[in-house]
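not sure who needs this but someone in the group chat was asking about Kazal-like domain-containing protein from Trichonephila inaurata madagascariensis so here u go. i didnt clean anything up, its just raw.
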Amino acid sequence: MLCTFGSQCLVDESTNRAYCRCGETCSEVFAPVCGNDGVTYSSECQLRLSSCTQQRRILVLRQGPCDLQDPCEDIECQFGSFCKPSIDGQTARCVCPEDCPYQGNDQSVVCGTDGKNYPNVCELKKTSCRQMRKIEVKFDGVCDPCDGVECPTSQVCQLDDRRNPICRCNSICSPDFRPMCGSDGRTYTNECTLRVEACKSRKNIRIIYTGECSSGANPCDSLQCGPYQNCDIDLLGIATCQCDVACEKAVRLVCGSDEQTYLNECEMKKQGCLLKKSIKLAYRGECGNSFSVRLNT
């Protein structure tokens, strides 16, 4: 026999038949509770006993009589706190969350409007509550994704549309006119604009001297360099072809026309420059099934 709602299975000694009985004995302690059936019970024990005798599910809706007003009804909690009724259900107060579940995932990190990183939203709300000031989620992820990112010379760390850190050429220079003559034979407004051009073109453009380049013909104009070579002018004004290709260490495998796999297209061009031959892009990805990656250092 299956007995439900807290009843116990007993055996009638005279008939030897099983039957269910609500055997819970309640004390006379008065600690009223409101059941979800809208009835006030003198204690939780009396509620359970009534549930058993009526053979229906009756749960504690709240502590105190049913006609007692919800103590949280007129309380407005702020800064991430929540209303917690007292044990007797007579009063209530705002309390801060004590514990936060362990997320174990860096993706749960959030950036607060106070400029600080928090392990998760719960920790942010807990801090906001304890400090009694408004702290909201500004971004998902850390506040400064560029923190700790080291970029090559003349590049700065910036964020893309998804707030991922990427190194880009600095494009902001002052308008101050302090002309510099670059090793490519061009005059630049100042050292900053020279560095920006070197970064964008991925050429090793050096400062030959301070001031505008000489008004004579650019020595690079009469020099024809090979594939991927750059014209470079030394301090004596002599132009030569150099393989000063600066490549980032990004893995974007490409297959060259020489059937070799390169780390990226820039590395392929650099190899062509060093070998003084034209190596063209065959297709993106490694060549065939091999993994022969050329990386010039």
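also The chain has a mean pLDDT of 84. if thats useful
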